[in-house]
Write a structure and sequence with these properties.
The chain is of the alpha/beta class. Helix content is 50%, strand content 15%. The protein is built from 7 helices and 5 strands. The protein has a 5-stranded parallel beta sheet, with helices on both faces. The protein is globular and about 40 Å long.
């Protein structure tokens, strides 16, 4: 089974991926980790982004073809970007579940973004402020696709994990 976790930054994708992975013995592949590797190698932002999505698509296809369980942790909150990326692979939709992570409480989301800005642990932390993050996502079309399950990260982590596990 391939689980796609997509959504804005700071909506719980990575946190839930870690927990579900440990409970259900799923591997996790993260676009950000792949991207960070390319940045560390000295590639520029644009090249690292392109190469990360290429490697991610190839890795997902390999997991699918070998019938292995994996959680794909990626942003791609903007629906057209996700749809374009998803179409690059030949996946049996019976073996795929899609989750859109959102945060129904703007104050909680802004607080999480502020913490990320203050404690940038990843070399790909692009936002310099909550204002930057808010403006960035305002330009995007972020909505649940008809075959996607929405996970609201304003809920407890336990509730989010349970919702994912109920689906798989």
């Amino acid at each position: 089974m391939i689980l796609f976790f997509r959504g804005k930054a700071a909506t719980g994708k990575s946190t839930v991926a870690e927990i579900v992975s440990s409970q259900r013995k799923y591997n996790v592949i993260s676009k950000d980790s792949i991207f960070d590797e390319f940045l560390i190698q000295g590639l520029d932002w644009s090249t690292a982004t392109s190469m990360a999505y290429d490697k991610l698509a190839d890795t997902i296809q390999e997991y699918h073809d070998r019938e292995l369980n994996v959680i794909v942790d990626l942003g791609l909150a903007h629906e057209p970007f996700f749809t374009k990326f998803f179409s690059r692979m030949r996946l049996d939709l019976e073996k795929v579940r899609l989750f859109l992570f959102v945060c129904g409480n703007i104050e909680i989301w802004e607080e999480r973004i502020a913490k990320r800005v203050d404690n940038a642990e990843s070399s790909n932390q692009a936002f310099k402020s909550v204002y930057d993050a808010t403006r960035h996502y305002e330009a995007y079309h972020i909505h649940k696709l008809s075959y996607e399950i929405e996970i609201d990260s304003a809920l407890s982590i336990e509730a989010m994990v349970n919702k994912v596990c109920d689906v798989i």
